[in-house]
């Protein structure tokens, strides 16, 4: 059912280890990011870290049920991988969760954090924080039909509903009535009007202590923290107080940071993946995708930040940006870009 199985076991040299039994994959994860964490991005990220939990972009129930494309497509090499769903109809969410489990996803996550107008108009995302009982119904409907974990990603409040008591009531309702035992909390509240999605990631202040307190008050629940995490040192500091850390834009814009996750966060003793070898290990995947009609730029756009801080990084980015979109662009474009880094 999964595509491109032939690429998943190629180039095992310097590849990350399998998930450690000592730590759950959710100890460190890359956030679901719309238009960014697509299947090509996740395949690339998996080359850098074997243990990080990867998330799909948010996929709406309507797209899965009524869309013409395969919105559940992924590569077997991506495991552990979670599907993030957007929706508020328990029956539709249950249908999609069942399909996702059949396809082999390791987790189903409900988006209760996205503040965009488009999401609100569809009655899902952060606006659902104001409807805790409905969220509980959604989670229960999915848990009733799947055996994989069903989790929630949420904010710490919305608009003027931003008291700690409001947050506790939301968590308690979803946990007790819905049976959810795992939450990822973006440590900012969301303004449902007046701020763009970008501003909602930056303007509301971060409140990490509130998430730490939530973990203390609900010690039986798994709590991961998200928002503003830029280094693995910061991640390790958060792990003194919560069960997991989710990194977003930094992991995307500076993917080289992921090469240190298995050792720094999961205690792996294997050598960290070499970025040059990671690029070369992508060649079979790129060739397989090109043969199926994928454009080179759809893959390489996720790789632009790999050599951040390394001499030649700018030439790498420029060569890919200027040439990957051209007609007939193939793996030779990547080889040429890599030579601009390797030769320095």
From TrEMBL:
Cofactor: FMN
Reaction(s) this enzyme catalyzes, per UniProt: 5,6-dihydrouridine(20a) in tRNA + NADP(+) = uridine(20a) in tRNA + NADPH + H(+); 5,6-dihydrouridine(20) in tRNA + NAD(+) = uridine(20) in tRNA + NADH + H(+); 5,6-dihydrouridine(20a) in tRNA + NAD(+) = uridine(20a) in tRNA + NADH + H(+); 5,6-dihydrouridine(20) in tRNA + NADP(+) = uridine(20) in tRNA + NADPH + H(+)
SUPFAM superfamilies according to UniProt: FMN-linked oxidoreductases (SSF51395)
Lineage: superkingdom: Bacteria
Residues annotated to bind FMN: 32-34, 84, 153, 186, 226-228, 248-249
Feature: compositional bias, Polar residues: 9-18
Catalytic residue list: 114
InterPro entries, per the entry: Aldolase_TIM, DUS-like_FMN-bd, DUS_fam, DusA, tRNA_hU_synthase_CS
Described function: Catalyzes the synthesis of 5,6-dihydrouridine (D), a modified base found in the D-loop of most tRNAs, via the reduction of the C5-C6 double bond in target uridines. Specifically modifies U20 and U20a in tRNAs.
Entry protein name: tRNA-dihydrouridine(20/20a) synthase
Source organism per UniProt: Tatumella terrea
Lineage of producing organism: Bacteria, Pseudomonadati, Pseudomonadota, Gammaproteobacteria, Enterobacterales
């Amino acid at each position: 059912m999964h595509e491109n199985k032939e690429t998943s076991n190629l180039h095992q040299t310097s590849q990350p280890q399998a998930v450690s039994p000592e730590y759950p994959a959710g100890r460190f994860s890359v956030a679901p990011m719309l238009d960014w964490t697509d299947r090509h991005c996740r395949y690339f990220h998996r080359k850098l870290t074997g243990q990080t939990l990867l998330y799909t972009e948010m996929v709406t129930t309507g797209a899965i049920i009524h869309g013409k494309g395969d919105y559940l497509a992924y590569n077997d090499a991506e495991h552990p991988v979670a599907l993030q769903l957007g929706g508020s109809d328990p029956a539709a969410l249950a249908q999609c969760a069942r399909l996702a489990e059949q396809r082999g996803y390791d987790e189903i996550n409900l988006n209760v954090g996205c503040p965009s107008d488009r999401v609100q108009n569809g009655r899902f995302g952060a606006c659902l924080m104001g409807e805790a009982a409905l969220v509980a119904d959604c989670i229960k409907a999915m848990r009733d039909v799947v055996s994989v974990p069903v989790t929630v990603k949420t904010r710490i409040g919305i608009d003027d509903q931003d008291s700690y008591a409001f947050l506790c009531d939301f968590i308690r309702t979803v946990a007790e009535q819905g049976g959810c035992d795992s939450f990822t909390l973006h440590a900012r509240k969301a303004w449902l009007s007046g701020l763009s999605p970008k501003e909602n990631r930056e303007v509301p202040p971060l409140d990490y202590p509130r998430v730490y307190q939530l973990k203390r008050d609900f010690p039986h629940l798994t709590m991961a923290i998200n928002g503003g995490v830029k280094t693995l040192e910061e991640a390790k500091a958060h792990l003194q107080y919560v069960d997991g850390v989710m990194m977003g834009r930094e992991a995307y814009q500076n993917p080289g940071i992921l090469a240190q996750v298995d050792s720094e966060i999961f205690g792996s003793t294997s050598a960290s993946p070499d970025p040059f070898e990671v690029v070369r290990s992508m060649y079979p995947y790129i060739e397989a995708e090109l043969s199926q009609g994928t454009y080179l730029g759809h893959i390489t756009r996720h790789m632009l930040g790999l050599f951040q801080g390394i001499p030649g990084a700018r030439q790498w980015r420029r060569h890919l940006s200027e040439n990957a979109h051209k007609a007939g662009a193939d793996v030779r474009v990547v080889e040429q870009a890599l030579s601009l880094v390797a030769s320095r």
